[in-house]
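User: Assemble these into one structure.

Assistant: Restating your components, then the assembled model:
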Amino acid sequence: MSAISAIAGFWMEGALRTLDAFTTGFGSASNDPPTATPYRVIYQGGLVRLRHYAAVGTAHHTPILLIYSLIKRPFILDLMQGRSVIENLTRQGFDVYLIDWIPPSAADQYRGFHEYVDEDMANSVRAVQIHSGVEKVSIIGYCFGGLLALLYAALHPDSVKNLVTLTLPLDMSVRDLPIDIMSRMLSESGARMLVDTYGNVPPWMMFSFFNSLAPTHHMIDKFVGAHRSTARRGYLEMFRLFEQWLHSDVAFAGKIFLETNNDLGLHNALMKGAMKVGGVTVNLKNLIAPLMNVIGDLDDIVNPKSSEPLPDLVGSADKQNYHYPTGHMGAAVSSDALKNLWPAIGGWLKERDA
Amino acid sequence: MATKPQPNTMSKLTRCLVDFTEAMTIDLPIAATKRILARTDERELHEAGWKAYDAIVELANDATSRVYTNSAFGRVAAGAMEATIRAQRLGVALSGALFANLWPAIGLPTAAELSSIREEVGAMRAELAVARAPRAPLSAKAQAAIPERPASPRFDVETAMMATSGVFQRPMFSGWTMPEGREITPREVKQNVSN
């Protein structure tokens, strides 16, 4: 009986969190929890706020620029002490810069890949160059951020020292996970109508879409899991922060949504070499920097098979797929990934630091 | 630690069904009987209960995946979603046309006005957050080390401001102006603003 009342308590807490988010909005920057690692904002422009996290001890020569997805807040990368990718990298001696994407307003619905990649990311890289005094930077892109990083590295190869992509959605012809079908069910005219109606894709719609992919988990199983793990040290704090992140969806700018849905999703344009950004065709062979493509073998958000072809498409001589037995978010928050995966990424970058 | 996933010999659905049947027909009844007859502690019964729960959840997850990966479901869901968006679009257009003139007439703000006020408040919040965030000073060494590269005009302005003061501000409305664009003097302000 006590188990049922404890689970009911977690469920009620979760339901209130979701209802609050529907009432007061999802991913506003002001709703972020306190950061685990101290930082300074060194640049702001366009829809970017660029944070700098200083290396612990003597810093390696090449700084890291972290690019996170546009559809949720990036605090998942710095969730809490001991569970932070950023803390992990700074402790390995890297100066880390993080692009904190500012959620788009109604006036930003015209923003597409060109505005995000050729303007915001290019300006951020320039700011990193100036701040660090280094000409080339290593870029780590996570999920949709990996896609942005890949496009940037192919369009502006001169400023990229190394590229690490994690859980990268690339080949959209792969269709054996629920998300593969669900995310490509909107036709071009349907997507157009959605943008005409809302301007940007609203956060509540993004939230509902992702939650509907695993209804049993989000309706009951995660709360049962929280109850069953209560005794684990620090688990509940982590659970609540993770839940907060799950409710941190931000609007997806109208134009980039159309480009993602139509060009990438329906026409698989990047794989076919037909993707255009700002009128320029993206040629992945232009990417010559060393490439590490991290694939989460248990990922059910980005199909692992979708990421696999990347090394065959780029011009880099030094390139590899790195399979790791983790899920989509496990790569960022699991203690196993922080103990093994991120030191492996750091080690790979250190070998290519000079 | 880099590994390749191992191929599974039993299909996921079969495994889920086997686990579920085993938990419901063997583990749970045995544990319950033992609890009643042998008066053992509740641990074994709890374990059997959780095993049954896990099997049910696995089965439900697998069923959901099967529904979502079914192309017929995809077509129906896509049709329903597009119909909903179409209805929403029509609703927005209708209410806009109907209330655009009627609403202000009875002294109520329009949705667009509310939305613009909300955005303005949001922008002010963001500005405040930026103003409160700590900023790093730029080193002269860092400036000297990098060759110049053409960038967008807006960025050049921001970079230049960062380089000189370590901060930059966007141009902001700084005071009252006369209709012809001339800045209003403090005296004229007093004349025009009663309080």
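Residues 1-5, 168-176 of chain B have pLDDT under 50 and may be disordered.
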